[in-house]
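Handoff note, outgoing to incoming analyst
You'll be picking up this chain. Sequence as last confirmed:
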Amino acid sequence: MKAKALARFAILTAAALVLGYIESLFPLFAGMPGIKLGLSNTVLLYAIYILGGRAAAALMVLKVLLSGLLFSGLSGMLYSLAGGVLSLAAMLFARRIKNIGTVGVSVLGAVAHNAAQIAVACLVTGQTVLLFTYFPFLLLSAAVTGTLTGIAAKYVIKYIGKK
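Most recent structure output, in case you need it:
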């Protein structure tokens, strides 16, 4: 990896960590676990569109590991990794579909992230029925937050691009 590419990757990793940390300081809906804006996903969307799938995957893994070590611990890492892997896979797939833009890719990623986290919660707690009653609320929040994150990423990609 060249120095310029490595520096860009380090900046994106730091930006994702900082945005994730800032977001954790201001819960979007207190008392409703799993619902957050997903500001760091703006960075991941940028990576998908500008740097490609491999760099985006590396960025997601680094963000999960570092934020887990710094802020959330092993259980947080488990939920974040499951959500990150499924979300990234969904976004990379959606990115290839001709008429789906940045906002649509973001919403699909948000929905996939919530689905993976619900699946992990079901495995960990065994509360399948109870957790699936919460899933519609997560889907609604994914549509809203995914749209907002997608709009932000669209403008970041448009105005920053490969600069």
